[in-house]
């Protein structure tokens, strides 16, 4: 938001559509009052007027600058109010903030993406970017886990993704029902059968802290170098500008120095898995 | 001290009365218990120069407890009698709030509109330890001009173009004189004496870099023991010249209020799903020290502690960080 006068001033955005993704997760398509650009992995602060603000990485394509989509799990004070939003409501957005995914570093490589729960949101934005640049990539493998089949989000997007050349999708749920014909178990079981050219590969992890931890440990065990594991870190954030101090993770402000870090960068910092 | 001049205390007081018509002037006032900044009024008779650390740190003028960051007002003002520890603390505030990528417009305007008048400390408190952290007990940075009261007169030293504008006005309307060698010698002697007292008082205290190492390597026991009387009131952070964390609060009309916050408060790092790395009081307590002496010193050029000692004075749990560091440095 380099062209606004005050770093704390949100711009207004209208809710165009609300999409129910799962019992606890909804997506909100927003139309900002002026064009809004971001790079994949960067985040915004979403303001509910007079009530509160929370950070979200957009789940939509970074190539779209007239619309923006955020996917939100109902889990706390602000997200309860976000879930009450309806078409036509006006919210505020600040940003984009932070350091996103270094897409150029992924060119010519196999990309393994490990996602869990609502962590699919930033990953979907990344996937839109990777689809647009697929000629520069060798292959993209998405491993996604959720608690139950009905907790799996972006179902139609996943079906579309499976049809795209160079893209593979594997999913698991902790607890299956009769409709489920994919894997059952924690998401890391999906890694066991994969054949990746690890020397020419990078891994990307985004999900709940505990899944990020065990996912990273598994990737290290598979032989991924620490510098090739990209993590999108979750922390309490307030300003998004590297000032308020809430998101400090050792010497890093996650909002400004991240939220995307390599494991190599943060492995010695405190409370990375909270 | 080239360019220094002398003015009588009574003429300086008259000058303050004049200039307070043009801007808000804050002066250090002795209220019988301690020294605190107060808005200058002509009948203020208890102005005290050369006193160490007023109760409130200088940061309170730039990052007040609560401020509307989208609709702030910026009165022109002059703050008189600022000790060196507080002036030095501005280095870190400037690095955080005037960073290249996201300069804070409210802080920036507050800095532009404020004339800073530093002062030599001619006395020390039991908790003062600036020299341990490479801060002299007299202003070396960030002042526009400085004052030192010697033998009933004030030595004025100009430090910036903005300071020069103010002192030119003073010289225009009031008699000033060259300071004689005896006065300058006395000022230097006073500095030296205060320095010696600080060195003696803090001879067992580790310096800034040693402190960082000691904290990094310390075990949980010492933090749990010292945190036992901590009530998480956050006073240590509130009166620290370099603790600057805040919470952005929303108001109707997409308004934003910046309100002081601190990692000492429960929930400071709690995420929406409930995980909170600072849930335990002793962990929060240690976190503030890790932040000031380890992480901030890795991330920024400026120091995150200038040895003012206010966190010790203000702690209602009677916790002395100097005792913690001395114990770590000289284990029995």
Summarize the structure.
The complex is a heterodimer of chains A (274) and B (332). Chain A has 274 residues and is α/β, with parallel strands linked by helices.
Could you describe the 3D structure shown?
The complex is a heterodimer of chains A (274) and B (332). With 274 residues, chain A is of the alpha/beta class. Helix content of chain A is 18%, strand content 31%. Chain A is globular. In chain B, helix 6 packs across helix 9 (281-299) and helix 7 packs across helix 9 (281-299). By secondary structure, chain B is α/β, with parallel strands linked by helices. Chain B folds into two domains: 5-201, no CATH class; 208-329, no CATH class. Chain B has eleven helices and ten strands.
What order do the strands of the largest sheet of chain B run in, or round the barrel if closed? 1-8-7-6-5-2-3
In terms of DSSP E residues, the strand content of chain A is: 25-35%
Range of helix content of chain A: 10-25%
* C-alpha end-to-end distance of chain A: 30 Å
Rounded to the nearest angstrom, the radius of gyration of chain B is 21 Å
CATH fold call of the largest domain in chain A: Rossmann fold
Chain-averaged pLDDT of chain A: 96
Number of domains of chain B: 2
> SSE order of chain A in H/E notation?
EEEEEHEEHEHEEEHEEEHEH
**SS strand fraction of chain B:** 15-25%
Order of helices and strands of chain B: EHEEEEHHEEEHHHHHEEHHH
Class based on secondary structure composition and strand pairing of chain B: alpha/beta
Number of strands of chain A: 15
Give the overall shape of chain A. globular
Query: Which class of the largest domain in chain A in CATH terms?
Result: Alpha Beta
Low-confidence residue ranges of chain A: none
Whole-angstrom Rg of chain A = 18 Å
Biggest sheet of chain B, open or closed, and with what strands and sense? Answer: 7 strands, mixed
Largest sheet of chain A: 7 strands, mixed
Total helix count of chain B? 11
């Amino acid at each position: 938001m380099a062209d606004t006068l005050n770093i704390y001033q949100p711009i207004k955005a209208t809710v165009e559509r609300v999409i129910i993704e799962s019992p606890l997760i909804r997506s909100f398509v927003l139309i900002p009052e002026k064009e809004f650009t971001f790079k994949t992995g960067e985040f915004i602060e979403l303001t509910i007027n007079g009530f509160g603000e929370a950070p979200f990485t957009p789940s939509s394509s970074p190539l779209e600058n007239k619309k923006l989509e955020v996917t939100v799990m109902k889990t706390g004070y602000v997200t309860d109010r976000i879930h009450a939003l309806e078409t036509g409501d006006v919210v505020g957005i600040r940003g984009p903030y932070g350091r996103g995914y270094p897409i150029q570093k992924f060119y010519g490589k196999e990309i393994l993406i490990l996602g869990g729960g609502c962590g699919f949101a930033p990953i979907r934005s990344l996937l839109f970017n990777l689809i647009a640049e697929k000629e520069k990539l060798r292959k993209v493998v998405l491993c996604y886990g959720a608690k139950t089949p009905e907790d799996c989000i972006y179902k139609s997007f996943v079906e579309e993704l499976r049809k795209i050349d160079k893209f593979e999708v594997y999913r698991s749920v902790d607890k299956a029902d009769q409709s489920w014909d994919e894997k059952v178990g924690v998401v890391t079981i999906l890694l066991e059968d994969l054949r990746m050219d690890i020397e020419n590969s990078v891994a990307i992890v985004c999900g709940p802290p505990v899944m990020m931890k065990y996912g990273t440990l598994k990737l290290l065990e598979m032989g991924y170098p620490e510098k090739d594991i990209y993590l999108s870190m979750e922390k309490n954030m307030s300003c998004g500008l590297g000032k308020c101090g809430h998101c400090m993770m050792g010497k890093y402000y996650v909002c400004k120095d991240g939220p995307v870090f390599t494991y190599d960068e943060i492995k010695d910092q405190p409370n990375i898995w909270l | 001290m080239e360019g220094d001049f002398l003015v009588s205390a009574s003429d300086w007081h008259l000058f303050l009365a004049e200039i307070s018509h043009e801007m808000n002037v804050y002066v250090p006032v002795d209220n019988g218990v301690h020294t605190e900044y107060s808005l200058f009024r002509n009948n203020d008779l208890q102005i005290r120069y050369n006193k160490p650390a007023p109760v409130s740190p200088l940061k309170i003028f730039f990052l007040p407890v609560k401020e509307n960051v989208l609709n702030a007002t910026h009165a022109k003002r002059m703050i008189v009698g600022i000790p060196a520890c507080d002036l030095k603390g501005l280095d870190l505030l400037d690095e955080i709030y005037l960073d290249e990528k996201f300069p804070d417009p409210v802080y920036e305007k507050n800095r532009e509109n404020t004339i800073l008048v530093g002062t030599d400390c001619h006395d020390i408190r039991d908790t003062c330890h600036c020299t341990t952290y490479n801060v002299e007990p007299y202003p070396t940075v960030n002042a526009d001009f400085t004052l030192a009261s010697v033998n009933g007169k004030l030595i004025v030293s100009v430090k910036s173009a903005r300071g020069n504008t103010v002192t030119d006005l003073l010289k225009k309307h009031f008699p000033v004189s060259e300071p004689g060698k005896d006065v300058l010698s006395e000022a230097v002697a006073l500095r030296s004496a205060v320095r010696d007292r600080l060195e003696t008082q803090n001879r067992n205290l580790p310096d800034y870099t040693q402190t960082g190492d000691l904290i990094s390597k310390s075990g949980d026991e010492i933090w749990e023991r010292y945190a036992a009387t901590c009530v998480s009131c956050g006073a240590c952070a509130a009166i620290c010249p370099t603790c600057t964390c805040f919470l952005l609060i929303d108001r109707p009309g997409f308004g934003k209020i910046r309100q002081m916050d601190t990692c000492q408060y429960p929930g400071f790092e709690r995420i929406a799903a409930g995980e909170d790395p600072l849930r335990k009081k002793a962990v929060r307590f240690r976190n503030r020290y890790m932040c000031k002496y380890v992480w901030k010193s890795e991330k920024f050029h400026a120091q995150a502690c200038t040895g003012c000692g206010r966190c010790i004075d203000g702690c209602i749990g009677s916790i002395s960080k100097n005792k913690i560091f001395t114990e770590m440095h000289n284990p029995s």
